[in-house]
Amino acid sequence: MNSALAEISEDHYSSLHQLNTVPKQKVLSVSHLRKSYNAHQTVLHDISFDLHRGEMVGVIGRSGAGKSTLLHVLNGTHSATSGEINSFPEVGTPRDVSRLKGRALNQWRSECGMIFQDFCLVPRLDVLTNVLLGRLSQTSTLKSLFKVFTDEDRARAIALLEWLNMLPHALQRAETLSGGQMQRVAICRALIQNPSILLADEPVASLDPKNTQRIMGVLREVSEQGISVMVNLHSVELVKEYCTRVIGVSQGRIVFDDHPSRLTQDVLQILYGDEISQLH
C-alpha cells in the first residue's frame, strides 16, 4: 500500500487485512428507487441493492440503460422520484439521504464523492486549487474564491497529489494536463472530502489503455482502503479484472447482481442485445 495514502487515511479507514477478516459492513441500502423526468420518461424502475464497505462494484449495460442516472441519484445531483436511499454511517443512525436538501444534501455529497468522464475541473485554476475545491462543503465560497484553505487541507491535498504522482504539476493550470492527469486530479478532489463512497461515471471512457489501467488500479486501491467504489464501465474485461462485484442494468432495471466471474454470455446478451459483438 502506498505510504502517502496510508498516512492520510490512518484516521479514517482500516487496513485491507481488517476488511478481509470482518463481516461485510453495509454503507448504503437502496430500496425500490424510481426516477422519472416526466409521465412518459421513467429512467429507473424499482432499483434495490445494498452496498458494502470496501466493495468495488462495476455497473454495466448499454448506453441509455440508466447507469449514469443511477449514480447521479445516489449522489443527490438528481432527485429520486420515489423509493429510499438509506445511508449507514459508522457513527449515528441510518438516514434516507434521498430526502435531504440544502446544507444536509451538500454534506451527503461530500460523504458520497463523485468523479466524471469529463473530469469537471476548473481549467484556469491550478491543480492544487482544483483539489482543494473538494473542501467547498466545509468552507465558504468566498474563502475558496480567494484560495483561503486551512494548512491541514493543503497538507492533505499535497499528500493526495504525491500519492498519484501529480505533485510536480501542483501549480500547473488544469487545462494544460493530459486526460489521464486530469482524472487523477479529479480523484484527489473527491478523496479530499473523506468520502465513505466514491462514484465514478465512466472515468476511463476517454483515456488510452495505459491511463485506463492506471486509473482503474487507483480506484481498486481506494476500495482496498475501505471506501465503497461504484464505477460505470463499458468494458466487461475491466470489470472482470478490477471489480469484486458487478451490477447489470437494462432499461432502468437491475437484471444481474453477482460476482464478475458469473457473467455468462446469456447474461451479456440480455444486457447488450445486438451490441454484444462490440464488447471488449
Give me the secondary-structure topology:
Layout: H1 3-9, H2 16-21, E1 26-38, E2 41-52, E3 56-60, H3 67-75, E4 82-87, E5 95-96, H4 102-111, E6 112-116, H5 127-132, H6 141-145, H7 151-163, H8 179-191, E7 197-201, H9 209-224, E8 228-232, H10 236-242, E9 245-250, E10 253-258, H11 265-272
Characterise the protein shown here.
With 280 residues, this protein is an alpha/beta fold. 36% of the residues lie in helices and 23% in strands. Strands 6-7-8-3-9-10 form a 6-stranded mixed β-sheet, with helices on both faces. A 4-stranded antiparallel β-sheet has the order 2-1-4-5, with helices on one face. Helix 1 runs antiparallel to helix 7 and helix 8 (179-191) runs parallel beside helix 9. It starts with a helix and ends in an 8-residue tail after the last helix.
